[in-house]
């Protein structure tokens, strides 16, 4: 089988790594990929087509007889890559653009959850500055959470601790238009207390299978301080998601979401990412994503023991309910190494050295994100540069190994959090 993976992050490197372990695979193309997928060699090659170039991706898939396409990021989903591929008779894993509105429109997602009785924070929708301002001025309790409805690369959410912060946020959204059209509609919702964790499912629209739960670390600074990032590290499974909590998530969130989307005419297929706030064992939905998370994928996929490609094929062709979908025992952790300055402006082009002995640390894999090959050097080419994943019998063992791996990788200004997983130990 020939597989096409769309995207360029460490998530897509981890997908390529997981796909490569399947015996069924002859070629793996990553569009556009990164320095890490370029270095995999053998069956794996990068294709210079960007994730948003749907026509070019489709041409490529038919020219190279691609049997299955896997979509990493949200942007091609919003652009309709799934319906385009399906209309040409090509197998693809992901939701249609209508179904992907669970991620691409927070207004759709919130209204959907209200219609289906799925637990989430109370909210109001605003389409103009004046009404939003009047509401925030009359609002008696803070914090309030202000969200641009459209895609903002993870930056469109402000947890406003005070009225002033909230008013500033809507001024930025409606007047300074920092997110352009993505903030034409704004959700203002109540603050949820508790601890966050994420649950990931693979679904064919009716049946679903669960990966292990995970916890991301979204802030740049240790102790969850400072600016929001794409995610600085993750571990799995999340002890917070006990079997009881997972049962509630299935009963109150996953099953009603799949049934509701089907009943409303947008059957949801592909990966479903459920971001949760858990308070006293009660889960509420913070957000849905229509894809796997980054960096969560870099721990969740290495912990999948069964054949990833077989499961993906079953999700497209039928048989998802019975395909093997087993997880490794133990735990996994991944630590992101970022460029100095990230998530603000950062420098690129710094040479990266990866000590060959990394490969000798048992259970460690390095997934690249913002790297590229420059002649025979590997250089930094993004904010999040690479992620170092390790598995272990316990979370402690996995974390020790991941940090041992991090210690063998060097580039100028490398920054990483030293407290990934610390909360769960
Ligand atoms: P989102 O992009 O919707 O996941 O929001 C980004 C982050 O903001 C989440 O991971 C939470 O840490 C925080 N957040 C979002 N909504 C809420 C809420 N209603 N209550 C508390 N924190 C929230
Ligand atoms: N790690 C969060 C995300 O992928 O959205």
Stretches where pLDDT is under 50 for at least 5 consecutive residues are none
Whole-number total of structural domains: 4
Cα shape: globular
By helix and strand content, what is the structural category?
alpha+beta
User: Termini distance?
Assistant: 41 Å
Oligomer: single chain
CATH topology of the largest domain: D-amino Acid Aminotransferase, Chain A, domain 1
* Residue share in helix: 25-40%
Strand count, sense and barrel status of the largest sheet are:
5 strands, parallel
Residue share in β-strands: 25-35%
Please identify which CATH superfamily of the largest domain we are dealing with. ATP-grasp fold, B domain
Number of strands: 24
Placed side by side, the strands forming the largest sheet appear as 3-2-1-4-5
CATH class identity of the largest domain: Alpha Beta
Q: How many helices in DSSP terms?
A: 13
Rg, Cα atoms, Å: 21 Å
Q: What bound compounds does this protein have?
A: adenosine monophosphate, glycine
């Amino acid at each position: 089988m020939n597989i096409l993976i769309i995207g360029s992050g460490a998530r897509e490197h981890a997908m390529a790594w997981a796909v490569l372990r399947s015996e069924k695979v002859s070629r793996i193309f990553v569009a556009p990929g990164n320095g890490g997928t370029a270095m995999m060699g053998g069956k794996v090659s990068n294709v210079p087509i960007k994730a948003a170039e749907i026509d070019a991706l489709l041409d490529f898939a038919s020219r190279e007889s691609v049997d299955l396409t896997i979509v990493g990021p949200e942007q091609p989903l919003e652009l309709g890559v799934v319906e385009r591929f399906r209309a040409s008779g090509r197998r693809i894993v992901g939701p249609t653009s209508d179904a992907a509105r669970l991620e691409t429109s927070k207004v759709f997602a919130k209204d959907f959850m209200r219609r289906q009785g799925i637990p989430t924070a109370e909210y109001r929708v605003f389409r103009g500055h004046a009404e939003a301002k009047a509401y925030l001025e009359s609002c008696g309790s803070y914090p309030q959470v202000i969200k641009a409805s459209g895609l903002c690369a993870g930056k469109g959410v402000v947890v406003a601790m005070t009225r002033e912060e909230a008013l500033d946020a809507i001024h930025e959204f409606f007047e300074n238009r920092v997110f352009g059209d993505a903030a034409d509609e704004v959700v203002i919702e109540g603050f949820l207390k508790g601890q966050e964790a994420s649950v990931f499912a693979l679904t064919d629209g009716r049946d679903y299978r669960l990966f292990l739960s995970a916890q991301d670390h979204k802030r740049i600074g240790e102790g969850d301080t400072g600016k929001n990032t794409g995610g600085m590290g993750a571990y799995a499974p999340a002890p917070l998601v006990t079997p009881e909590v997972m049962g509630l998530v299935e009963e109150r969130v996953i099953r009603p979401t799949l049934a509701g989307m089907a009943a409303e005419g947008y059957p949801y297929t592909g990966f479903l990412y459920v971001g949760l706030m858990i308070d006293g064992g009660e889960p509420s939905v913070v957000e849905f994503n229509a894809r796997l998370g980054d960096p969560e994928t870099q721990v969740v996929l290495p912990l999948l023991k069964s054949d990833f490609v077989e499961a993906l094929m079953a999700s497209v062709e039928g048989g998802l309910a019975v395909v093997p979908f087993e997880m490794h025992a133990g735990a996994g952790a991944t630590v992101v190494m970022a460029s100095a300055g990230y998530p603000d402006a950062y420098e690129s082009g710094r040479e990266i050295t990866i000590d060959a002995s990394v490969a000798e640390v048992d259970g460690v894999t390095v997934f690249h994100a913002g790297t590229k090959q420059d002649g025979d050097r590997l250089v930094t080419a993004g904010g999040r540069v690479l992620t170092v994943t390790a598995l272990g019998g316990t979370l402690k063992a996995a974390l020790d190994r991941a940090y041992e791996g991090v210690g063998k990788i060097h580039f100028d200004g490398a920054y990483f959090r030293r407290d990934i997983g610390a909360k769960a130990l």
